[in-house]
Design goal:
about 90 residues; single chain; 6 strands; Folate-binding fold; two-stranded antiparallel ribbon; binds zinc ion; mainly beta
Amino acid sequence: MFLIECPWCGPRDESEFDCGGEAHIERPADPAELSDEAWADYLFMRTNPKGRHRERWVHACGCRRWFNIERDTVSHRITAVYRMGRKPPGRR
Ligand SMILES: [Zn+2]
């Protein structure tokens, strides 16, 4: 268990949230132009780092809004919380 700082509601228990997987996965502009392998890669292949990872989360038992988190997958320490559509910290 750990606390997550919802950008709208403040700190809440992790049990109020659902993880939506890796953040910043962009849908290909023209999926019909992709090979089956490239499409499968977009749909199913995700990084699984040991350490810093950026993820989408939703406050399912609260405001029901989505946002991004940068979290260490080993310690669960959250180093950044930022709204959808915004760039992660350290990126321009
Ligand atoms: Zn919330």
